[in-house]
Amino acid sequence: MAENKIVLEAKGITKKFPGVLANDNVNFDLRNGEIHALLGENGAGKSTLMNILYGLYHPESGEVTVEGNKMQLNSSRDAIKHGIGMVHQHFMLIPVFTVTENIMLGEETSHRASPNENPLVKLDRKEVAQKVRDLSHQYGLEVDPDAIVGDLPVGIQQRVEIVKALYRKANILILDEPTAVLTPQEAEDLSRIMHDLTEKGVSIIFITHKLKEVLAIADRITVMRAGRVVGTALPKETNEAKLASMMVGREVILTVQKEPAKPAEEVLKVEDLHVKDVRGLESVRGVSFSVRAGEVLGIAGVQGNGQTELAEALTGLRHIESGRFTLSGKDLTGKTPRLITETGLAHIPEDRQRHGLVLSYSVADNMALCDYYQPRFSKGVVIQQAQVDANAKKLIKEYDVRTPSAFVNAGKLSGGNQQKVIVARELSRPVKLVIASQPTRGLDVGSIEYIHKEIIIMRDRGVGVLLVSAELDEILSLSDRIAVMYRGQIVATVDRKDATREQLGLWMAGVHETV
Amino acid sequence: MDWKRFGFIFLIIVILFGAVVLVGHTKSSPIIIITSMMATTIAVATPLTLGALSGVFCERSGVVNIGIEGMMLSAAFFGWLAAIYMFHIFGFGIGISITVGALFAVLAGALMGLLLAVLSITYKVDQIIGGTVINILAIGLTGFLNRQMFFGKGSIFGGQIPNSPGVLPTIHIPIEEIFIPLCKSANCIEIVDSINKVFDQKPIAISAILLVFIAHYVLFYTRWGLRTRAVGEHPKAADTVGINVIKMRYANVIIGGALAGLAGAYFTIESVPSFEPLLTNGRGFISLAAMIFGNWTPIGAWTAALVFGASQALNIKMQLFRDVIPPQWAFLQQSYVVGLIPYILTMIILTGIIGRTTPPAADGVPYEK
Amino acid sequence: MQSETKPGSPIKSLLRSALDAMLIPFLAILTAVILGGIIIAVVRGNPFLAYYGLLDGSFGSAKALSETAVWATPFIFAGLAVALAFKGGLFNIGAEGQLAIGATVAALVGYALPDWLGVDIPAIIHLPLTIIVGMAAGALWAAIVGFLKAYTGGHEVINTIMMNYIALNTISFLLNGVMKDNAPNNVSARTPLIAESARIPTIFEGLRIHWGFIFALLVAFLVWWMLNKTTLGFEIRTVGANPDAAKYAGINVKRTIILTMALSGMLAGLAGTIEVAGLNYRHELGFSIGYGFDAIAIALLGKSHPLGVVLAAILFAAMRNGGTRMQFLTQMPVDLISMLQALILLFVAADAIVRYLYRIRAQGERVVLTRGWGG
């Protein structure tokens, strides 16, 4: 039967990177018209496998056949030739180009151009734009061909990526973590689109680490761990717990064990804050809330609704247009990051490699990054290296940071251990409030568990925690109160016990009615 | 083009032209002065225009090119050397000698471009360091060979510089032939004649203007331009649709080198038939400012280059009016003083006060697969 | 604070970090020397005689050593200037202008101050004053660029180059005008001689080597100490390594950028000042041309490490100095030295080429300064 025909098959794929065996003799197949999910935690090898299928990496060994034809794996042109299209997690779109220009890039003329054709051929934007409109209608993926991609919301950008693949006549679509940047509502739209596509003859592989999603959308689930395929399951024969343990290789506790919170006095008070983003557009539009000592306030919301700018404003990294905030009564509006830190605010930044660490410095130096000038590390202007090193050794042990020594460059540590360095540093000061922005992004399950535990420990010690996360599960698991941010405003605040996933999803999508 | 930028350019042009007219109006009529300034401006803006175009191509594909100065210098030298060889050693006529000279200049520029490409694309050397290496290499190489070939005792030319075959001729555009018969007064004839002088330019100057428009078309209306810009904004995205990022960058940097080479040819083949060490005098760097001010577009860069050219033309024209300068303006005579204008202009432009500029997003970042 | 080195005595850790970094530059020099020898052979010279001349002229006698030290002094200061800026993530191509400004201002204080005040000034005041003013002038010249970078995002590469030309023009104007030496038989654009009280004494009778050389070595050590052992040095290096993290760490990035440029300019200004006070006793137009680019080469060759800079400076000084002897022995023009230096720079910059030639594994961080044009 047509539904069961195998359209793509990968056999014995092995891929090595320096120091890492990313894919170890992997076998994978895709049937016609199915939605096949590839599940695994960060670093399991899923993206590597997909990049190989799309011709971006060359495997050490193994082969891929599409509809029975063996595929050359030299470049993405080969994959495109075989009808494979890929939508990456971080979009491969050029923000300053229009939708049409992005779609026509590489295939600038109406007939399938080879790379050696006349470079000076004139671009026919009108013709391609018309084709884009036709495709949009055909597949129900509305996009405006003349819009500048950089101005489009993320959900629409993703549609552009899909249309881009369809323009190249893809009938196998690979989606890499497609819902990472979508609201729950948009994720549902996407799953509808995926089913429509399969009905029109497209077969889909999608990569994810989200258990609920996989059970809801996929026809088949393949689990990968540490570069190997661990098993394949059908959604109706498995559940979250089983999948999680396949992903990690042991029993996984999916929710954090914790005592009820004992909130005390207010530590952070934010009043009508207005902040502009890098482009000068207002991204925090009148936000007010407060956090008490000993509680976790989780700010839920899809990335791009002002949370990043909010966190930056509260840590002194971004200018505050109007409004104010106080920490334990002290007004810190517009003050320098240093003063804010000294008043007792700790920050676990969203982008640990860019803001949290100097990768070329040793672990020891990174642990003193914010306090190097304090008396405990410096006598006047002279830095006491011995004290810095002793402090590092102590923290490494206390926080179980896996590193050969305190003198190794921070860049050599794994993501989880890098995050531990940051957490260790921030919490080893007297702290009243911790702002944790996307603290477990890109981490393996073990590190995620650790960070979650640390957040609860902080809370129980009487520290206030402001948790900003796009992962709804994380918010639900850790927060005592939840606020939802949408388009720069807090649209709702609830106690954890009154919050449901559905309701939060609606708020995150800007819908104001209650379910 | 936004109004702030346009207004700034307009203001500077008015000031510069105004200054010359003010100083010289006792000697010649204002119209003659203005047209003569325009003619000189277009001529001296030539290396700046070409240098800026060189920058545009390199940077649009993602490679910062600080070495334009060195490329110009090498091209100026090798083009001149080739012309001399052709004339004195191989015995060719003047026309052929200088044409070959110009071609060699372009070739020299392209080779330097290739060097920059190898350093910064393949070996991923920091692009500013790579460009600086090109500059230092150019100074060392041209200085060494200049001395070796012409001044050393055992050198080929026996210790003296042979006469260069000459410079490229001015090309006459027959405007006056068409309009003078319509003239009724001697004044009108003089005016038409001086307007014609604006259009009578030498080949490289004319090529520079043509190349501006060609570059504009290529960059924004052809496949090459789309791919180049893609590679400079988001090379990974371009890679995923099958574009060879490395090849595109190499090609564009070599083209940039060739353009800088043509700029170099201007110095020794079109402007003055002799070579002096460091004769480029910072023009390569001012080209970069023109490129930035023009927001990495050919036409914008050309406009900025004209402004810089005008300030240089001011310097030149002031020398003509030495004898009639009112005493309070006497300091303007000193070329050191007026010569400061391009540099100060550049710094003002870079503050972004006249308008923010956006470089290509991946400019300066080596591409790792 | 140092990365990747165990704590130990300052001298030991200084030496170890320098040794680690020396391998590639050493091999780069070796390759350039070989290539240079080939070039010499091609233009019908004798490479061995040429290099012998080079070595003899730079180290072969007391006079040679003294002259090498004399040449090395400004190279050390200028190289430190560029190296310090590199550490702070800044590319200071303006050492040339800062140096010239320092020299000019120092010369002014040197020859004009006694006249203005109408009295002779004791050396114990005049000399330090001259040096301090020269340093300050260089610092100011560079700080302007630092300010523009910090507050407008104007890239320091082009701005420092523009300041170089502005300096050149301004100094030409002054040295041909109000600051010109009005001695009857003088036609050059130069200042009068500075007063005796503003001169740095020589170390040995009959040789030109002066205490400025020793001062240069001392300053090199101070720069190393400041960069690696003080809070200011930590701030400079952190801004250079990761300005985003520096901001997050509470460091005032704008202030640090301006300070880094000012310190860098100060060192370049010192280069010019010490040349005036210790060697020429005046400033003449054209005397300092080319030091700026040499400084860049020296800083890169020395891997931006103060000890490396000192060694690279001595190497370049030796090449300059020995070049005359080499020319005397072999008729090879002194410009060959510039060629050699350019080649060395090429190989140091493209260390991947050297690595490939000698099969050395890559390690450590790559110098990345280009972060686009800002704005």
Secondary structure layout:
The complex is a heterotrimer of chains A (515), B (369) and C (375).
Chain A: E1 6-17, E2 20-31, E3 35-39, H1 46-53, E4 61-66, E5 69-70, H2 76-81, E6 84-87, H3 99-104, H4 125-139, H5 154-167, E7 172-176, H6 184-199, E8 203-208, H7 211-217, E9 220-225, E10 228-233, H8 240-248, E11 266-276, E12 282-292, E13 296-300, H9 307-314, E14 320-327, E15 330-331, H10 337-343, E16 345-348, H11 352-356, H12 363-367, E17 378-379, E18 382-383, H13 385-398, H14 415-427, E19 433-437, H15 445-460, E20 464-469, H16 472-478, E21 481-486, E22 489-495, H17 501-508
Parallel strand pairs in A: 3-8, 3-9, 6-7, 7-8, 13-20, 13-21, 16-19, 19-20
Antiparallel strand pairs in A: 1-2, 1-4, 4-5, 9-10, 11-12, 11-14, 14-15, 17-18, 21-22
Chain B: H1 3-24, H2 30-60, H3 68-89, H4 94-122, H5 127-150, H6 175-179, H7 186-199, H8 203-221, H9 223-233, H10 235-240, H11 245-271, H12 283-293, H13 298-320, H14 335-338, H15 340-350
Chain C: H1 10-42, H2 47-59, H3 62-87, H4 95-117, H5 123-152, H6 156-175, H7 211-229, H8 231-241, H9 243-248, H10 253-280, H11 291-301, H12 306-330, H13 335-349, H14 351-358
